[in-house]
Amino acid sequence: MSSADPLLSVRDLRVEFDARRGLFFRPRAVIRAVDGVSFELPAGKTLGLVGESGCGKTTLTRAILRLTRATSGRVLFDGRDVATLRGSQLQRFRRDVQVVFQDPYGSLNPRLSVDVIVGEALEVHGLVRGRVQRRERVAQLLRQVGLSADDLDRRPGAFSGGQRQRIVIARALALRPRLVICDEPVSALDVSIQSQVLNLLAELQETHGLTYLFISHNLAVVWHCSDEIAVMHRGRIVEHGPARRIFEAPQAEYTRTLLAAVPAAPS
After folding, report:
1. Which one, of 176, 65, 181, 178, lies nearest residue 128 by Cα?
2. Can you give the CATH number for the domain in which 123 is found?
3. Are 265 and 259 in contact (CB under 8 A)?
4. Is 267 within the bounds of a domain?
5. How many domains does one find in the chain?
6. Distances (CA, A) of 253 to 223, 233, 245, 259
7. What value does the CA radius of gyration of the chain take, rounded to a whole number of Å?
8. pTM across the whole model
9. pLDDT digits (tens, 9 = 90+) for 87-112
């Protein structure tokens, strides 16, 4: 892949579901959760995907990850059609694309130590050999996200919400991904902690050359971390462009509605 090629390309993607109602559960309607979405995301950049709850952001993400089957359209990662990946190619895709989930409380198993939570994927993918090597790598990851090797044997219940999200980020980094999908990564955190996590994500992007698809309902949050912004409404991208242009000269009525809900315009 050349530097000019997108790392992720979504082309006219559609995801439809049957709404089954009535006698014998016959389909009466089709729900178009994702309706002809297209965008490109260059390597090393951040695309902010913003929209209210129910607009299709989560379904789009699941289709990109191949967790939900697309009705039509294509998702290309590094030039390869994700739908055609099999065997070792699919395994490589699973390594290259990781997710930082919204809820740091629900996404961590409370019964496992940080060492196991972060290190399990390293063993599954054969990136470490044995417990000692795993612990050394996990300790390194914890330091990268602002935690300590002393935290290896602690469990999630011993950490604050912001610290738990740092553990989630460490787990996402463990496999050295190329694309990280940040699914509302700060919405469950106190406002005072959100900026710390956003700054951490920016530092990690610069250090590791990461590419982010940053999903949020909050335009103000997206503004601070995105090169470009795509605004999603009722399954469609209604506006897409450079972050500054979206804020200074929004074209779509829905974008203007979202901006009106921001308490203070970003500077």
Report:
1. 176
2. 3.40.50.300
3. yes
4. no
5. 2
6. 18, 11, 15, 10
7. 19
8. 0.92
9. 999 999 999 999 998 888 888 999 99
